[in-house]
Amino acid sequence: MTDRLNRSRLFGPMIADWRTNGAIAPRYKTIAVVMMAVAFGFSFAMAVPVGVLAVQALSMALAAGLILSRPSRTRDRNPQPIF
User: Fold this and answer.
1) Most CB atoms within 10 A, among 9, 59, 60, 63?
2) Residue 45 in contact with residue 58, Cβ under 8 Å?
């Protein structure tokens, strides 16, 4: 399964960037953070208990912090502009 993901046109470059540089492209950072916000929004809309929302918000904030703190270099080693 690992070789299949490494050769994938979709996932292969992302995995290579992570392994060589510990990098996540800005596009994928944005997707990850937006998806976390959407998931939190659904939880809020479904009236999930406040304690659960607090744990979810803390967990997502820590995960988003980790994702956003990673470098944005790509395989060609050229930094990608954020804007």
Assistant:
1) 60
2) no
Instruction: State the Cα–Cα distance between residues 23 and 15, nearest whole angstrom.
Output: 9
Could you state, in order of their start, the residue ranges of all structural domains in the chain? 2-69
Higher pLDDT, 11 or 68: 68
Give 79's strand partners: 73
- If pLDDT is split at 50, 70 and 90, which confidence band does 83 have? very low
How far separated are the first and last CA of the chain, in Å rounded? 35
b/e per residue, 4-30, with b = 16+ CB within 10 A? eeeeeeeeeebeebeeeeebbbbebbe
* Selection from 63, 13, 9 nearest residue 33 by Cα: 63
User: Running DSSP on this structure, what letter comes out for residue 12?
Assistant: H
